[in-house]
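Standup notes, protein team

Yesterday: finished cleaning the Fictibacillus enclensis set.
Today: Amino acid aldolase structure.
Blockers: none.

Input for Amino acid aldolase:
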Amino acid sequence: MDTPALVIEKRKLDANIQKMADIARTKKVHLRPHTKTHKNPKIAKLQLEAGAAGITVAKVAEAEVMAEHGIDDIFIAYPLVSEIKIQKAIDLSRKIRLITAFDSLEGIQKLSQSAETAGVVLEVRMEIDSGLRRTGVLYDEAVELARKAKELPGIKLTGIYTFRGPILDGKPTLDIEEAGRQEGQLMADLAERLRAEGVPITDVSVGSTSTSASAAEVEGITEIRPGTYVFYDRMQEKYHCCLHEECAAAIHVTVVSKPSDSLLIVDGGSKTFATDVQPGQSPIFLEGFGEIIGHPEMLLERLTEEHGMVAVHGETNVQIGDVLQVIPNHICSTVNLHNDVFLKNEDGTLEKQAVLGRGKVQ
């Protein structure tokens, strides 16, 4: 195996998949994991075998990849508004159970018109902005939008969903349990309001890796959609979502230069490690761009495209040619930088797997 390479410990992967499946089973909610983390139909099938009800993706192209490999229950948790994407979703809905999403009147009208023309009924969920200020209809405007949506032809409004992450009272937080409970309660309350207004909501879908367990405790929540839990990463460890030993993914890099005793250069830069989760951000205040396993004296301090600059604080026996293992800050966007991953079995053998959903951004 050449470097840089992304290596997944199969034993930890299996344990993480089972852990979340057990949480969903205990809380009596459906698990629909987001495959944005691994982008790999083989791993998605492991999640389904462990009890997941279906999967979540962000893009139509990702859904197409998963469907091509036999997965037949997929939620595209992203508003579809362009004709080409909607048509692709309609085509896919003829083959599998496909759930689509909207967060505006314009968006649901486009879905309705295209579905009616095609002679199909699209299953849809309405996205709610529960505090992240990303996509999603504003919470206080959701009932009005849902009333209008349910009257449109060609669509069947079955649920609501949100993604909030570790946000509490509008601010990032380390209190992920309370953040999850607040997320769940907001959505459960909204679902009751919608039903009272004659909108027959059945699916109430919530949860990130950090908030799924506590959100699922709220009565009325029917589904959780965590993603990062399959591998975990440095960010999730800092949010206390996992133990260090549960992190299943690490980037293997080779030391290619040692300009001084205080500086090493490795062969992985910003084309190997994602940089969207920057050091020093509240509330987790990460240092560097990943944790170098077994070397607390080292910090992956800076990245250029193909170079990683490692600051050395104190003595180290690492030399040019040595291979280091680094847990990245954010595994989801890191995986999307790699064509392949290597699954490491307990006997030490490696299985190369293509990241088939990589780059499927449309």
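Follow-up from PR in the comments: The chain has ten helices and 20 strands.
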